[in-house]
Amino acid sequence: MPTLVILRHGQSTWNAENRFTGWTDVDLTASGEEEARVAGRLMAAEPGIEFDSVHTSVLTRAVRTANLALDEMGRSYLPVRRHWRLNERHYGALQGFNKRETADEYGADQVKIWRRSYDSPPEPVGLEDARHPVNDPRYRDVPQSVLPATECLADVVRRLMPYWEDVIAPELIADRTVLVVAHGNSLRALVKELESISDADIVGLDIPTGFPRVYDLDARLGVMGARYLGDPEAAKQAAEAVALQADR
Is position 248 within any domain? Predict the structure, then answer.
């Protein structure tokens, strides 16, 4: 039976500062590093999970979370593929701004729309803006036409699913156990498709940092069961903390 495990990266420096991060490349905090190690220990202790491959975004906080977790599992030798399609949602002109201060300026309702709605992106950045990925050398081989200047969750679904369908899904169909280490919104996009969550209901889904989520799949990759590893109450509280970020 195919098994998929998803893991949101540990706390980043901009998570700690309550800033819109998006495609900005920031590192983990010391707490985020420990979250990654704990996640590794949880996965190592889970019976029946023996990973065959790992996929991450190209952003440091996801890459380092994967590396730290694999080290903790004693599986640093596993093949890892990194791809920009697993990146966090691009927050456009909001990137770098404090969420609480943005809510004070524009109103909590507007910020909630920007953060949580399915199809309402923030204002885009221009090509000359350092926050546009065209100015980052890691995307030099990616056509400019597919690099986002801003995104809503629907955009993340559209750019993530080709990688799922072309790369990850074939591994799972081949009965492999796969770990995907990514971000709150790229994982929300994946969970939406996996669990057939409606456009309206996805607004209420939050992915906690550092808690592996295990999916037991059937031969056609239908979800037979899903669960977080570790303390369920702690995972719930961590997800609730994500939802309250703009209110801090």
Answer: no
Q: Domain holding 21: CATH number?
A: 3.40.50.1240
**Phi, psi torsion values for 87, nearest 5 degrees:** -60, 160
Q: pLDDT of 158-204, one tens digit each?
A: 999 999 999 999 999 999 999 999 999 999 999 999 999 999 999 88
Q: In this structure, which amino acid lies at residue 137?
A: P
CA atoms of 37 and 30, how far apart (whole Å) = 11
Q: Is residue 209 part of a domain?
A: yes
Domains in the chain, number: 1
Catalytic residues: 9, 88
Give the H/E segment covering residue 15. helix 13-16
**C-alpha torsion sign, points 98, 103, 106, 108:** positive
**What range defines the domain where residue 27 resides?**
3-243
Radius of gyration for the alpha carbons in the chain, expressed in angstroms and rounded: 17
What is the spatial order of strands in the sheet that 53-56 belongs to?
80-82, 53-56, 177-182, 3-8, 213-217, 223-228
Q: What is the pTM of this model?
A: 0.94
